[in-house]
Design goal:
The chain is mostly beta strands and about 450 residues long. It has a single domain, classed as Porin, CATH 2.40.160. About 10% of the residues lie in helices and about 50% in strands. It is built from four helices and 21 strands. A 16-stranded antiparallel beta barrel has the order 5-6-7-8-9-10-11-12-13-15-16-17-18-19-20-21. A hairpin with a 7-residue loop joins strand 14 and strand 15.
């Protein structure tokens, strides 16, 4: 209950976060996980940031089951603008101390994240070296914390081994009020990646796996929502009514990094007008349980090239479910999402083709208090024939499983081993490329070290 007392002390929210832990679970999975620990201990996408911990005076575990997956407290912290503060601040007030004019953190809210990894692919890809090492896979600097009593930031600058630039960014204004007799949280978000502002781990920006290999062979097609990060900028408004109903609308406009600004004839995938994004969610917490069901989506119209001519009209409609249960030894979480995409693609000035595509994902996670965690996920993409999918069938059908074991010896340090197993890849189980490569040839083993400080 220490976490809840701190939460009420700083935020003064009327609704409480039920977090009593009092149930049983047999630790018969621990022996198998010990093998994983011994392997990982060989020296070799909100993320749990030490700047937030320093600002609030709370451990990373106050907001996360296992970073970057948020718990109820973490969702409230993010929705309320990253402004919960426990450290000494530099204050200035006016009107007999009734109006706060300045509230600066005594230190800059800076953090650093380093990811390094090893990837083995089941069968060598012709012309490329297998057993690749990424050092770093990502090196990020964050400005993440309170700016004013109602404005906070999550700004990430990343070097990915090739380029350096702004990664995910979410700047928020948030406040509290009442609607009738019920509490109301409301705010605005300025961000550069649809769903990066989301507080649930079911939307594309934050769902499992939170880290994956850049060296692995991936299916040819994914939804447009998964591909607009750092290509757009959006301003939106959101509200949470009675800690039950969440709603958000954000409008996005092209803001492509490393490309012409404003967009011109050299641009690709420039947004025509604005792209509307929406999010609705119902949540409820009782005893040791929590559940959320919701919908989200985005509807951009993109120019194929330049800023005129042929266009692709895209509509992504998503549905999601998140369940959590606190256990005496840790927590169990479940996430699932289905995104249905409809694309109307111009093939000439007078003709177009309609292409449907679906992406389904589900994962279950067991996190133990001793830092051990295990996740099993399933993914399935399917859709109509698409000439942009380079395979024998030109179909985007792919499915398989992702298994991950992780160990957090400290709350800001993660060692993980992940295995991706494909049953179907780009439309076929075998010879999907016409050159004899099978789906399971793309199975990959991924070892990750993830540090935040």
């Amino acid at each position: 209950m220490e976490i809840l007392s701190r939460f009420s002390r700083f935020f003064l929210l009327k609704s409480s976060l039920e977090a009593k832990i009092n149930d049983n679970l047999i630790l018969n999975v621990a022996k198998s996980l010990l093998v994983f620990i011994s392997i990982l201990w060989i020296p070799a996408q909100t993320i749990a940031l030490p700047s937030y911990a320093r600002q609030t005076g709370l451990s990373c575990s106050a907001c996360h089951f296992s970073f970057p997956e948020l718990n109820s407290f973490g969702r409230q912290f993010k929705m309320n603008g990253y402004v919960l503060t426990g450290m000494k601040t530099i204050d200035a007030k006016e009107d007999s101390d009734r109006v706060t004019r300045l509230k600066l953190l005594s230190t800059l809210p800076l953090s650093v994240m380093v990811q390094t990894s090893f990837t083995h692919i089941s069968k060598d890809v012709e012309g490329t070296q297998n057993n690749s090492v990424a050092f770093p896979q990502q090196l990020s600097v964050f400005y993440a914390g309170q700016v004013t009593p109602h404005i906070g930031t999550f700004i990430q600058m990343t070097y990915d081994g090739h380029t350096f630039g702004m990664d995910n960014a979410d700047i928020r204004y948030s406040n509290q009020g009442r609607l009738g007799s019920k509490n109301l949280t409301y705010g605005f978000t300025l961000n550069n990646n649809p769903a990066v502002q989301d507080v649930w781990n079911t939307s594309p920006a934050w769902r499992f796996p939170s880290a994956s290999s850049d060296a692995a062979v991936n299916p040819a097609k994914s939804t447009i929502m998964e591909n607009l990060g750092t290509q757009v900028a959006g301003l939106g408004a959101y509200t949470l009514y009675n800690n039950l109903l969440f709603a958000e609308v954000t409008l996005y406009r092209s803001a492509q990094q490393g490309a012409a600004n404003p967009a011109d004839i050299t641009s690709t995938m420039a947004v025509r007008g604005v792209a509307p994004y929406w999010r609705l969610a119902l949540q409820h917490q009782w005893s040791q349980n929590y559940i959320e069901i919701g919908t989200f989506g985005i509807a951009p119209t993109l120019y194929a090239t330049g800023i005129s001519g042929m266009k692709n009209k895209m509509t992504d409609v998503g549905f999601d479910l998140q369940f959590e249960r606190r256990l005496s030894v840790g927590a169990f979480t479940l996430h699932s999402s289905l995104i249905s995409e409809t694309e109307v693609r111009d093939t000439s000035s007078t003709q177009h083709v309609r292409i449907n595509f679906n992406s389904f994902k589900i994962d279950g996670n067991l996190y133990l208090k001793n830092g051990l965690g295990a996740t099993l996920g399933y993914f399935n993409t399917s859709g109509a024939v698409d000439e942009n999918v380079a395979s024998v069938t030109n179909k985007p059908d792919s499915n398989g499983f992702i298994a991950q074991l992780e160990y957090l010896p400290w709350y800001n340090t993660k060692f993980a081993v992940q295995y991706v197993a494909y049953n179907k890849f780009n439309g076929s189980k075998s010879n999907y490329d016409g050159d004899g490569r099978n789906a399971n040839n793309n199975n990959s083993l991924y070892l990750l070290v993830w540090l935040s400080f």
